[in-house]
Task: inverse folding
């Protein structure tokens, strides 16, 4: 089956690394925003192949979901038989229940939307909290959830050999435990109560923090308040220093400066979202997962 990968400008380096690792052609999408905010997408002149991989990380998701709808429907009309979405960051996964009566459960709705458009999906550390498997959120036969925790852990261990890994909340336990398994580093998990978008309370686990270098490990830094609050707590408990490692560097608004003001020294992330903190490249893991999904008659 002929295969090409389509990418957009913002994600060009990571998408091209992936295309190169898999050995497929990378085609750049053109995107124009009209004054009224409608979008015009333009494909390269090349013929579309039978199998199209679309690389689109879903930070700032609202426009991107419309782009995916336009692109996938157009591709089907043009005879593309197989559509694979590589979305290293998968948006809307945190709204997995109605936290207040009447709220829409976006995880299921967005997941269902993507499953109607694509045949297969690869993502990294999707925020699956109350469900265990990605297919429960995105009902596709081929829905692959990779974890960057072991690779982030290696990056941490190279830089902070005796770090104490700390997850800021119960959800982070899955990533912190797997990072600790990969490196043998000690770990703990905090408890968190969220009172609003930017208001969180963190309680530390019963561990000796005095004199330790702590690395906070989480899937997402969004407003940065979770990490900032956890950093303040560990420094107040006597830690020698605190750094941060996250899979998805969303860092909305003032997040990075809030984290720095809380005393965080280094910030490391994967390239699931392009950001100055990117320290771990996902192309090798994505390529290993993508290869078998292309090998379908
Ligand atoms: C939630 O459980 C996630 O794992 C993150 O901890 C959360 O999304 C971080 O959000 P913020 O940076 O806005 O505190």
Result:
């Amino acid at each position: 089956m002929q295969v090409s990968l389509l990418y957009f400008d913002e994600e060009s380096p990571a998408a091209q690394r992936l295309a190169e690792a898999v050995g497929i052609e990378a085609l750049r999408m053109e995107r124009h925003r009209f004054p009224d905010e409608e979008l015009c997408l333009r494909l390269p002149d090349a013929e579309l192949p039978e199998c199209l991989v679309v690389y689109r990380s879903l930070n700032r998701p609202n426009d991107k979901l419309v782009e995916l709808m336009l692109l996938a429907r157009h591709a089907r009309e043009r005879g593309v038989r197989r559509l694979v979405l590589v979305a290293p960051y998968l948006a809307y996964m945190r709204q997995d229940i109605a936290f207040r009566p009447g709220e829409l459960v976006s995880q299921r709705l967005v997941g269902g939307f993507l499953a109607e458009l694509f045949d297969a999906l690869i993502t990294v550390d999707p925020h699956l909290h109350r469900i265990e498997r990605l297919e429960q959120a995105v009902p596709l036969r081929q829905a692959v959830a990779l974890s960057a925790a072991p690779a982030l852990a290696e990056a941490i261990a190279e830089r902070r050999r005796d770090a104490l890994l700390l997850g800021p909340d119960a959800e982070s336990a899955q990533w912190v435990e797997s990072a600790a398994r990969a490196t043998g580093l000690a770990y703990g998990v905090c408890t968190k109560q969220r009172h609003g978008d930017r208001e969180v309370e963190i309680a530390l686990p019963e561990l000796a923090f005095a004199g330790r270098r702590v690395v906070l490990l989480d899937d997402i830094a969004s407003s940065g308040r979770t990490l900032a609050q956890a950093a303040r707590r560990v420094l107040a408990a006597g830690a020698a220093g605190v750094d941060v490692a996250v899979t998805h560097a969303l860092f909305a608004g003032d997040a990075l400066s809030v984290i720095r003001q809380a005393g965080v020294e280094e910030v490391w992330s994967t390239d699931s979202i392009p950001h100055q903190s990117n320290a771990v490249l996902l192309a090798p893991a994505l390529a290993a997962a993508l290869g078998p999904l292309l090998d379908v008659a």
